[in-house]
Amino acid sequence: MAAIRELERLGTVGSLLGDQRVVVGQLGGLAPLARRIVQSMRRQGAIVIAVDDPDPAIQAHVANRFGATVYLGLEARLEPGADIAYYATHAFQSAGGRALANRIAVALRGRLNAPEPQVTGTRSTALRETRMTAVVCSLGPVQPMIDGAALLSECLVGAVSEWAGSPSMAAAPTS
After folding, report:
1. For residue 52, what is the domain's CATH number?
2. Sign of torsion, CA 13 15 19 20?
3. Is 173 within the bounds of a domain?
4. pLDDT tens string for the chain (175 positions)?
5. Is 48 helix (H, G, I), strand (E, B) or coil?
C-alpha cells in the first residue's frame, strides 16, 4: 500500500526543478557545498530551504513541515568516495528515492577522484522519518569535497533536476 501511495505522489511531482520544494539538509562538515546547492536551485526557481543541524530527526521534521517534494541530505565521511542512501526495508523501497540516488550516482561517477559512488537502501533516521523523496549523500573526505564544491553542486543539482523530469524512473547505468 505504501508503494502505491508513493507512486501516486510521484505522479503529481512537477517536471521542472522550479516546481520543487527542496530541503537541503547539512548534517555536518559540508556547509559550503550545501550553500552552493541552495543558491543554484534557487536560481533555477526551486523553493529551497537549508537545514544545518546534526540531528537527522530534526531535519526530517523540518522537511515534513515545509511540505518538501525532495530532501537532499549531505553528511561528511572520512573515507574517499560517496555513498548515496535512499529509504528501503526488506518489504519496501522508496521508488523515488532509489531513482534520485541512482541519478546522483551517475552524475558523480568519475568526478570525485575516488571509488565509484555506491547506492544503498537503508533505514536511517532522516530517510525513515521524511514523507517525501529523500536521499542522504555521504561524501568524503571533507576538504576535497569543499574544494570541489562548484563541480559537486552542479552534479547534485543536475541530478535533482533530471529526477524532477521523471521521478520514478532510475537513471540508466553507465559503465
Report:
1. 3.40.630.40
2. positive
3. no
4. 444 445 444 444 456 888 899 999 999 999 999 999 999 999 999 999 999 999 999 999 999 999 999 999 999 999 999 999 999 999 999 999 999 999 999 999 998 888 899 999 999 999 999 999 999 999 999 999 999 999 999 999 999 999 998 876 655 444 3
5. strand
